[in-house]
Amino acid sequence: MAELPEPLERLVARLLRLPGIGRRGAQRIAFHLAGAPADDVRALAAAIAALPETISPCTACGNIAGAELCPVCADPRRDRSVICVVELAENLAAIERTAAYRGLYHVLGGAISPLRGVGPDDLTVDALLARLATGEVREVILATNPTVEGEATAHYLARLILPSGVRVTRPATGLPVGGELDFIDQATLARALEGRRGFDD
Ligand SMILES: [Zn+2]
User: Fold this and answer.
1) Three-class secondary structure of residue 59 per DSSP
2) Ligand 1 center to residue 110 CA distance, Å?
């Protein structure tokens, strides 16, 4: 295989660190950018370079935000009596794309995983319990990923939350086993949320 010119190879190496991008995709992007108008390339680079200074976690839910509150928490039309708990901000984005959910979210920052050394203290569990303590929330939907770790995390949270009297639900079954929320199509995800049931049912 012919080697790429050094500037392209450097870009490909960076792109390969991104999720979902393999060598072929990385090369495709690199060649596309090499042939794109200089202004477009600079605008892309500027948008990326601005992220560390302009993006921070939403102080309420942990979603990615460009201000103190993310667009969901800042929206007065959202139903503040329901919180949908997800592992990562990208899971939240997947649910938002379905447009089937009008409540708030809570981003855990991952799932409990003894194998990877991730315990409850490494996640935003305390912040979630603090939000529930205000008494405004009537239902918590545990929409962690349908993986072994996601299920274990949901059970852990259900045990913590149920004694408080807040209704705890989980999306209906029908999610692919071992699948991750991001890869489930929107209609399936919307149906799973609408058909959610009580964790203790
Ligand atoms: Zn938020």
Assistant:
1) coil
2) 16
